[in-house]
Write a structure and sequence with these properties.
alpha+beta, Mannose-Binding Protein A, Chain A, 3-stranded antiparallel beta sheet, 11 strands
Length: about 180
């Protein structure tokens, strides 16, 4: 009966550790005598594999959920010319970067090496609520008339969301050219 319990536990644990390669050093057969050291060696191998997979999953989860503010783009873009020029400005300055949303900027880890911090830069509004008449940013809490935090879809309008080099958020005229706040 003990052998059956040990075999069941080993099979269960080996299926949990399936994400990494797992080679059980000792196998047991019905009718054969097993030693505690062989069983313990199997458990140690399983424990090591499970802990290794757990560490790898933690690293993947930590890296995929949080962006880091890189700085302001080297080029300035008008806020009413569409999103693609804003995206291109970020990518040209910080390879693989994207335009930060206000929420990403606010929740980013501190980056002492953030570059080009001068003046104000465009941000994407993180919408808390929206209606036909108002849009509210989730970070600033400010509500503006329809389209006023995003230059009317970055296609015109009067105001867009910006962040200063010090991190203060506000708005600027969409016709103005500003750098872009970039995150990776």
């Amino acid at each position: 009966m003990l052998k059956l319990i040990i075999a069941t536990v080993l099979l269960t644990l080996s299926s949990i550790a399936n994400a990494g390669e797992l080679i059980i050093p000792n196998s047991f057969s019905a009718g054969n005598t097993t030693s505690a050291s062989d069983v313990n060696q199997n458990f140690t191998v399983i424990e090591t594999a499970v802990n290794d997979n757990d560490a790898r999953l933690d690293a993947i989860e930590a890296g995929s959920t949080r962006v880091v503010f890189q700085g302001f783009s080297a080029n300035s873009e008008a806020g009413d010319q569409g999103l693609r020029p804003l995206q291109a400005a970020c990518d040209a300055t910080f390879s693989g970067a994207k335009v930060c949303s206000s929420e990403e900027f606010a929740n980013s880890r501190y980056n002492a090496a953030a570059a080009n911090l001068s003046g104000s830069a465009w941000l994407l509004a993180s919408t808390l609520s929206a209606s036909n008449s108002k849009i509210r940013d989730s970070v600033t809490g400010q509500a503006y008339g329809s389209g006023k935090l995003c230059c009317n879809g970055y296609n015109g309008g009067s105001q867009g969301l910006v962040v200063s080099a010090e991190g203060a958020m506000g708005t600027d005229s969409c016709a103005n050219s500003n750098p872009v706040a970039c995150c990776i």
